[in-house]
Amino acid sequence: MAREARTILERSRGRLKFSEPVAAAAIIDVEAALESRADLPRDIPRELPRELPRELGALQALVAACEKCGLCKTRTQTVFSDGTPLAKLMFVGEAPGRDEDLRGVPFVGRAGQLLDKMIVAMGMTRAEVYICNVLKCRPPDNRPPAPEEVAQCRPYLEQQVALVRPVVICALGLSAVQALLETKATMASMRGNTYSFRGIPLIPTYHPAALLRNPGWKRESWIDLQRVRDLVRSVG
Ligand code: SF4
């Protein structure tokens, strides 16, 4: 591994600790995760956790017809993903909002525009990353996802992760972090640490919508995004 990558990993190690009751299995060895990921051909998913399509287009079609939870009754359409399946970086948010429900694309409202700026600040473009949500349907009035909705929809996200195999996952907002890591821990206790989702480094940060409501959090968010960027760069 390049010296630059090792330097980044050395810096990261100091943050790999827990102060809240997140499952011990989530503690991550960033170096091992990145090295195993670096050797993994993109077209051969190592883990496919469910009996779901092994091709993203087929998975998207399955999701579009999904009626596993009550959100199918109120959605305009499902919202599967945006960006490229060849991405090294995957952003995972909570659920579609009004604009996303209407357009069928994640993060296209005001929060999405801010996310675009955040991605550019990291030296990338929206077309170079993969963007999705835990839920594929909009909860009415943008209410938080219900646990049973997350449980029903989570296998689709797990399959997306298995098929894309990003180098790093950036979880946007508390609901996404809690759903991915299956924890009740707070954002304040989790920010600054690196976790694991199916062996892939996961870094939590604020949802762009939260940054619009609380501009003072942007500085902390930028610290998180720089860690994400550095991990992505460390594998070339
Ligand atoms: S939210 Fe997920 S599980 Fe519920 S209907 Fe939509 S795609 Fe299916």
Describe the fold and architecture.
The protein has a single domain, classed as Uracil-DNA glycosylase-like domain (Uracil-DNA Glycosylase, subunit E, 3-Layer(aba) Sandwich), CATH 3.40.470. Strands 1-3-2-4-6-5 form a six-stranded mixed sheet, with helices on both faces. The longest helix is centred in the middle third of the chain and has 18 residues, at 147-164. The chain has ten helices and six strands, in the order αααββααβαβααββαα. Mean pLDDT is 85; it is low at 1-27 and 36-46. It is α/β, with parallel strands linked by helices. It has helices spanning 3-13, 30-38, 56-64, 98-103, 110-121, 147-164, 174-181, 187-190, 208-213, 218-234; strands spanning 82-83, 89-93, 130-133, 168-172, 195-197, 200-205. Helix 1 (3-13) packs across helix 10. The termini are close together. The site of iron/sulfur cluster has 14 residues, from helix 6.
Radius of gyration: 17 Å
Looking at the structure, what is the overall shape? globular
Oligomeric organization of the protein chains: single chain
How many structural domains can be distinguished in the coordinates? 1
Q: How many angstroms separate the termini?
A: 10 Å
Q: Say how many strands there are.
A: 6
Portion of residues within helices: 40-55%
Reconstruct the topology from this structure.
Elements: H1 3-13, H2 30-38, H3 56-64, E1 82-83, E2 89-93, H4 98-103, H5 110-121, E3 130-133, H6 147-164, E4 168-172, H7 174-181, H8 187-190, E5 195-197, E6 200-205, H9 208-213, H10 218-234
Parallel strand pairs: 2-3, 2-4, 4-6
Antiparallel strand pairs: 1-3, 5-6
This protein binds iron/sulfur cluster.
